[in-house]
C-alpha cells in the first residue's frame, strides 16, 4: 500500500460496544476533554489532542483518537431499568425488523408490517386487561364482595356492603368505576413515558441528505434519509395504543353493568344505554385497528407531518368514552350483587386466540417472503420474526398471568384456584391452564439445554486438536488446551440460538393452543377438570397446576426484583444495559411503549461528526467500532453522502454485523447490503476471534486484500509462558481487541490507504427542509429516561 500523496491530519473515531465504556479507558489517558455533545452522549479527546488540527505536523505519523461514548443513552440511569417490565413490547418490536429479504413484493412486505403491529396492539390490550383483572375482578368484584375477604383488609372495608353497612361505594358498579382508575392510570403512565422518550429520541434531526441523490443508490433501508427519524409515526402509534388501553378499561366496566341490565330486566333506559355504549366501544376498537394498520413508517424522506387529528383526538375521545362508561356503571342498581367472576375467560381467551392466529399468519407471510429471495444464512429460514413474536406473546402471558395469580393467592390466603372451599373464585380459568403448561415447557427447554451441553462437549473435544495445531511448537498442557477449546466451543453456542428459539416458540404455540382448548371445553381449572381421571393423570394435573401457578408468579416477581436491584446496584444496571443495547437498536416500529431507540440519537451523532470533520479539515478518517459499536458505525457510514463515504475507512472488531444482524435481520444487513457498504467505503477490515461468542467474520471478498476479514486472531496471544508473556496470557474472548498487534497493523494500513477526499465531496453540508419547528420544539436529544 502506498501512502496518500497529501499529508492531512488523520482521525480515528472509536465507538464502544455493549456494556458501555469511559472515555478515559477508550483513549488510554486519565485526562480527557469533551469535544462536542452533552452529558448523555458525546465525543471526547485526550486533553493533549484537543487542538490537534492546529498542529498537523505533530500527527503526520499517527491518527488523532476520538471516543464516542453513548452508554448514557441506554444504561446510564437506574430508573431506566424499570423498562424491563415492558420487555414483551421490545421483543415484538424486534420481530418487525426480522422480516426476510425480498424484492418486488411490496404488498407482502406491508402485510408483514401490519401483522406485527397488530401483535403489538394485542400486547397492549393484554397488559391493560391484566390490570383490569387485578383491580376490577379480583379486588373490587370478588374480594370486596366477599365479607370474609374484605373484613381482613381494612383498606377494602368501605367497598364492602357488609363491612361498610351499605355505604355509597359498596354498590358493585361504583366499586368497578373506582377500581377502573388503576388500569386507566397505568395507561396514562405508559403514554407519559412514551411521550417523554419520544421528545428526546425520535426528535433528533438526522444528517441532511442531498436532494438530488437517487434512492437507487441506497442498498439498505438504513441509508435512507428518514430511517432514523420516527417522530410522526411513533406519535400516531402511541395515540392508537393509548386509545386501545382506555377502551379496554371502558369495556371492562361497561360490559359488566350492561350484562346485569340485560339479565335483570331493569329500566329500559339503562339497557339501551348499555347496548349503545357497547356499540360505540366496538366502533372505537375498529377505529384503533384501522389507525394501526393504515400507515407504516416513511423512511425515504424525513417525515415531518404530525397527524394531529389522530395524535390528539383519538386518545381524548377514548378518555371521554371511558368517563361515560364510568358514569353509566356507577348508576344506582339496588339489586346488583357481585358473585362469581367477571367475564375474564372470554377476554383473555379472545386475546390468546387472536395472538395465535396473527403469529400463524405472520409465519405464512414470512415464508412467502423467504421463498421469493432465499438466503441460506437467514435464521430459521425466514421464520425468525414469527418465532420472536410468539415469544413476545408468551412473555406478555407470563407477566399478565403472573400478577393475576399472585394477587389472587394473596387475597385468598393461598387457596388453590377452583377449590370449592376457596373464598374467592380466583383468576380466570384460562390463566390457570396457561400456568399449568409452564412446567412442560420448562422440561422441553431443559432437554434442549442438555442437548446443547452434549454438543458443546463434543465440539470441545474436536477443538482440542485444532488448538494444538494453532499453537504448534508449544509444549502441550492438557488443562490449558481444554480451557481454550472450551472457550471456543461455548462461543459457538451463539450459532445454535435459532434452533433453541424456534423450538421454544413452536412448543409455546402448541401448549398455548392446548390451554385455550382445555379452558373453553371444560370450564374448570386443570386439577378439577382431571378429578375423574385415573390417579396418575389426576395427580399430574394437580401438580402441574400448583407448580405452574407458583412458577408464573415467580417469573413476574423475578422481573420486578431484577429491575429493583438494577436501580440500586451499578453492576446489575450495566448488565441490564447490555440487554437494552442489543434490544433497542431498532426504531419503534411495532410498539410505541417499547424502550426507546438509542440509535436514533447515536447514528445522527456519528454521521454529523464524520461529515462536518471531513468538510472542515479534509483529512483521513477511520471509524473504529467494537461489538454493537460496529453496528452503529456501519449505520452511520450508510447515512453519509457517497462522496464522503468513499473517503472513510471502516475498522470493525468483535462485530455481530453478519453473525447476528445478518442472520436475524436479513432485509437490512443481508449479503447485498453489506457488499454494497464494502464497495462504497474506501476500505473495510474486520477482526474476529474463534473464542468470541458475539463477533464473527463478515465473509465478503474485496479490494482490501483477499477479503474483508483478517484471519482469525489467536486467543490467547501466547499458549504458555514466554519472554514477552512471563505470566499466563488470558483468554480475551469478546474484549480487548486492541491488545492484539494485528489491531494496530490494520488501523495503520487503513490510514495509509485512505486517499484525500474529492473536492466536490467537501462542500458545505447540504441543507434539507426539516419538519415544522413547532413540531420539533424541545428536541435537544438529551436522554429522558
From TrEMBL:
Polar residues bias locations: 776-785
Positions of region (Disordered): 736-785
Keyword Cytoplasm applies: no
Tagged with keyword Transmembrane: yes
Organism domain of life: Bacteria
InterPro entries the record matches: AB_hydrolase_fold
UniProt keywords, alphabetically: Membrane, Transmembrane, Transmembrane helix
Transmembrane segments: 111-131, 176-193, 239-260, 272-293, 309-331, 351-370, 382-404, 433-454, 497-520, 540-563
Protein name, per record: Integral membrane protein
Amino acid at each position: 500500500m502506498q501512502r496518500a500523496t497529501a499529508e492531512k491530519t488523520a482521525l480515528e473515531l472509536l465507538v464502544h460496544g455493549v456494556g458501555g465504556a469511559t472515555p478515559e479507558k477508550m483513549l488510554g489517558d486519565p485526562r480527557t476533554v469533551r469535544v462536542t455533545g452533552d452529558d448523555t452522549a458525546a465525543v471526547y479527546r485526550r486533553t493533549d489532542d484537543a487542538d490537534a488540527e492546529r498542529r498537523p505536523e505533530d500527527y503526520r505519523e499517527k491518527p488523532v483518537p476520538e471516543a464516542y461514548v453513548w452508554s448514557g443513552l441506554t444504561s446510564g440511569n437506574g430508573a431506566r431499568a424499570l423498562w424491563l417490565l415492558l420487555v414483551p413490547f421490545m421483543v415484538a418490536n424486534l420481530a418487525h425488523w426480522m422480516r426476510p429479504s425480498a424484492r418486488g413484493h411490496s404488498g407482502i412486505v406491508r402485510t408483514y408490517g401490519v401483522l406485527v403491529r397488530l401483535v403489538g396492539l394485542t400486547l397492549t390490550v393484554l397488559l391493560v386487561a391484566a390490570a383490569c383483572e387485578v383491580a376490577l375482578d379480583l379486588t373490587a368484584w370478588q374480594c370486596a364482595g366477599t365479607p370474609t375477604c374484605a373484613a381482613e383488609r381494612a383498606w377494602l372495608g368501605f367497598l364492602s356492603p357488609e363491612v361498610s353497612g351499605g355505604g355509597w361505594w359498596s354498590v358493585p358498579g361504583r366499586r368497578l368505576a373506582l377500581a377502573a382508575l388503576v388500569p386507566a392510570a397505568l395507561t396514562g403512565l405508559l403514554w407519559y413515558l412514551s411521550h417523554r422518550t419520544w421528545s428526546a429520541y425520535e426528535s433528533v434531526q438526522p444528517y441532511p441528505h442531498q436532494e438530488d441523490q437517487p434512492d437507487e443508490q441506497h442498498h439498505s433501508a438504513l441509508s435512507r434519509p428518514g430511517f432514523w427519524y420516527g417522530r410522526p409515526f411513533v406519535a400516531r402509534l402511541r395515540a392508537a395504543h393509548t386509545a386501545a388501553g382506555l377502551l379496554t378499561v371502558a369495556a371492562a366496566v361497561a360490559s359488566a353493568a350492561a350484562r346485569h341490565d340485560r339479565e335483570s330486566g331493569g329500566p329500559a333506559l339503562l339497557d339501551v344505554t348499555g347496548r349503545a355504549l357497547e356499540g360505540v366501544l366496538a366502533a372505537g376498537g375498529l377505529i384503533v385497528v384501522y389507525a394501526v394498520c393504515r400507515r407504516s413508517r416513511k423512511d425515504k424522506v424525513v417525515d415531518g407531518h404530525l397527524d394531529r387529528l389522530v395524535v390528539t383526538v383519538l386518545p381524548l375521545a377514548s378518555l371521554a368514552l371511558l368517563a361515560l362508561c364510568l358514569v353509566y356503571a356507577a348508576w344506582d342498581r339496588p339489586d346488583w350483587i357481585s358473585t362469581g367472576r367477571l367475564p375474564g375467560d372470554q377476554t383473555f381467551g379472545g386475546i390468546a386466540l387472536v395472538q395465535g392466529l396473527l403469529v400463524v399468519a405472520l409465519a405464512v407471510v414470512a415464508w412467502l417472503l423467504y421463498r421469493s429471495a432465499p438466503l441460506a444464512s437467514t435464521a430459521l429460514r425466514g421464520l425468525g420474526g414469527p418465532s420472536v413474536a410468539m415469544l413476545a406473546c408468551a412473555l406478555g402471558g407470563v407477566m399478565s398471568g403472573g400478577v393475576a395469580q399472585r394477587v389472587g393467592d394473596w387475597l385468598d390466603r393461598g387457596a388453590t384456584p377452583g377449590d370449592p372451599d376457596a373464598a374467592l373464585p380466583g383468576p380466570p380459568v384460562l390463566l390457570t391452564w396457561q400456568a399449568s403448561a409452564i412446567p412442560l415447557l420448562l422440561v422441553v427447554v431443559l432437554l434442549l439445554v442438555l442437548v446443547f451441553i452434549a454438543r458443546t462437549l463434543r465440539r470441545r473435544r474436536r477443538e482440542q486438536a485444532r488448538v494444538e495445531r494453532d499453537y504448534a511448537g508449544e509444549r502441550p498442557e492438557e488443562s490449558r488446551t481444554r480451557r481454550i477449546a472450551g472457550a471456543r466451543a461455548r462461543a459457538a453456542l451463539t450459532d445454535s440460538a435459532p434452533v433453541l428459539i424456534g423450538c421454544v416458540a413452536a412448543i409455546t404455540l402448541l401448549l398455548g393452543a392446548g390451554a385455550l382448548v382445555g379452558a373453553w371445553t371444560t370450564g374448570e381449572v386443570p386439577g378439577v377438570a382431571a378429578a375423574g381421571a385415573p390417579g396418575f393423570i389426576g395427580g399430574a394435573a394437580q401438580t402441574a397446576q400448583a407448580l405452574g401457578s407458583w412458577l408464573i408468579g415467580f417469573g413476574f416477581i423475578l422481573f420486578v426484583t431484577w429491575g429493583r436491584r438494577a436501580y440500586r446496584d451499578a453492576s446489575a444496571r450495566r448488565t441490564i444495559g447490555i440487554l437494552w443495547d442489543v434490544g433497542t437498536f431498532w426504531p419503534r416500529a411495532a410498539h410505541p411503549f417499547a424502550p426507546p431507540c438509542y440509535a436514533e440519537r447515536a447514528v445522527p451523532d456519528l454521521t454529523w461528526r464524520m461529515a462536518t470533520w471531513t468538510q472542515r479539515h479534509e483529512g483521513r478518517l477511520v471509524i473504529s467500532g467494537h461489538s454493537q459499536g460496529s453496528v452503529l458505525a456501519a449505520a452511520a457510514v450508510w447515512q453519509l453522502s457517497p462522496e464522503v463515504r468513499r473517503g472513510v475507512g471502516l475498522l470493525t472488531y468483535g462485530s455481530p454485523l453478519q453473525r447476528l444482524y445478518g442472520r436475524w435481520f436479513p432485509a437490512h444487513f443481508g449479503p447485498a447490503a453489506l457488499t454494497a457498504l464494502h464497495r462504497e467505503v474506501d476500505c473495510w477490515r474486520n477482526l474476529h476471534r474463534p473464542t468470541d461468542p458475539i463477533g464473527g467474520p463478515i465473509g465478503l471478498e474485496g479490494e482490501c486484500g483477499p477479503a474483508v476479514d483478517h484471519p482469525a486472531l489467536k486467543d490467547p496471544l501466547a499458549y504458555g509462558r514466554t519472554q514477552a508473556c512471563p505470566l499466563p496470557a488470558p483468554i480475551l474472548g469478546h474484549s480487548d481487541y486492541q491488545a492484539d498487534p494485528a489491531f494496530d497493523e490494520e488501523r495503520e494500513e487503513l490510514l495509509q490507504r485512505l486517499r484525500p477526499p474529492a473536492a466536490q465531496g467537501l462542500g458545505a453540508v447540504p441543507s434539507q427542509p426539516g419538519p415544522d419547528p413547532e413540531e420539533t420544539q424541545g428536541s435537544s436529544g438529551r436522554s429522558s429516561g
